[in-house]
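Note to self: the last two entries modelled the partners one at a time, which told us nothing about the interface. This time every component goes in together.
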Amino acid sequence: MKIKGLSRAVALALCLSLLFACGLGEEAPLAEPVDAPVSELEEWVLTPGPEGADARVLAAEEDAAPTAEPTIAPTAAPTAAPTASPEPARRGFSETEAIDTATFENVNLVHEAGFKGYLATVQGTLTLKDVLIEGKPARGVSPFKFFKLGPKGRIVVEDGAQLTADAAALCVNRGDTQKLRLTYRGKHLSGGKARWKSSNEKVVKVSKAGVLSALKKGNAVITATYRGRSVKCRVAVTNIVYVQAVEITEEKPVVSLNRTARLKARFTPAKPTNRKLTWKSSDESVAAVDENGVVTGVAVGTATITVTTDDGGKADTCLLTVKEVRPTSLNLEHRFLTMDLGTTMKTPARVLPENNSYPGLAYASSDTSVATVGKSTGIIEAKKCGVTTITVTSTWYPKAVKTCKLYVLEPGSGPMAGLIIGINPGHQKTGINKQYPMAPGSSKTGRGVGVGAGGHWTHMAEYETNLQVGLKLAKRLEDLGATVVMTRTTNDVMLTNIERAKMLNDAGVDIALQLHCDAVDDPSFHGCATYYRDNSSWVTESRDMAKLLAKGISYDTGCVNRGAKVYNGYMSLNWSTTPAVLIEMGFISNEKEDRLLASDDYRGKVADGIVRALRVYFER
Ligand SMILES: [Zn+2]
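The predicted structure of the combined assembly is written out below.
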């Protein structure tokens, strides 16, 4: 084999195996003890001094014939056994006379195809320290790869003395400690021998022995240094709170048949990082439990519920009882509802107690052109402006029925829109003395209508005060969007109480209000009162309204509230087919109230009080 380009130079066919055969191979192969002392490490370091170099050169010269173009047999060198045979090495070496073993620094290595060694022109001193061959400490075995041609023809020696750590990156939890294990030249290196440094002492502290302490969430780089070699390990500190225990908060929970309840679990510590739980029932035919701890009472009985933590598999159990709870009442939370046209809402009805086993309800609307309601859902859809009655029935106990009146309004309507309020200012200028039945079908009779009383001090006619309050009330109600039906707007009418009642009945009023003033012999009597009859089909509505009206007038005028009273002898109330209340606004037989009721201001206050009561009653 020809080796080109070496003719004039001091040429050297340098087989790497030769280097080791000469410098290392004859010595014991590297079997460095852990933390071997320097002297021992250096035993295998080839440090050709002038004498050693001479010796080798001489040795080489003895065997090799000088030649300008030395050849080396391909088989001669490289794949020698670990204890490299000196023969081919010596041969290669012997082909170079001019090797200056003391001056290996400026070496020109040329690799020739087919030749598994390197050729070098040596013009300096070569010192090999910590040599690796094929990544392993030099033992004089197959060489070659640790020499490379440097960019300027320099010999580059790969360092065989590697310092490594058992982890290049670590993830540790806050509060944890961990030891980083080091390896130097393939052997364990005691941590205490290295110098340690943390890039962020607040995150990870490192002891002189190489023990890492994770202090807080964050990142740091740990560097270990030994004999000029360094190794880094990236450390990420997490802040994970682990589950130590779990406990179901209720020891003996109860769930109603057909109902659900949520079981809660308490962790120790209170807020672990991983709060995932698994719930399980010992008997799904009695009680089911979902992934959120929501139990469903399927049948009366008991079942053991177990909760298990995802983190650490901690568990707790409780004995769940499923019991039947019978309904006690059906509650429809409003007597009146309003909805804007085109909107939907859920009927606010419930079966009580809340945890009853049979909460099912059936819903119906009396006028589905105004509003429809889902038979089982209770969802109302407002279809048309108007009024309908929503009926709610318990599916478990069909005798439990509730109704509410629903007003569907044009969006933006006034607060009392949709309501029809009947106002009957009592009496008139000329009475009708003809007798009429006091009630439909009654044999008892009374005057058609009277002229009423007069103010004992002011002589103001009651019919006039009744009319003036009525007109003020009508104005207020209309301003709030209500429809008002008045039986009269002047005193000069001829209308019996029955005719008046029928006017309001025919108008389909939501409430018929009879306006009056009291008068008795005793001038000390004062205050307002309301009357309703208790023999109608509207007793509850009339009574509730009567109470509110007395309260409202008293509130706005400051007069005494004499309360809501039952009286079945008023013709106007008896002929009403709607809720109806007769209002005695005050005593015109009392000087103070007579004067007040004759005043525009006080009449306005009475009207205010009535409006207040109506808004409360109709939930407007
Ligand atoms: Zn009267």
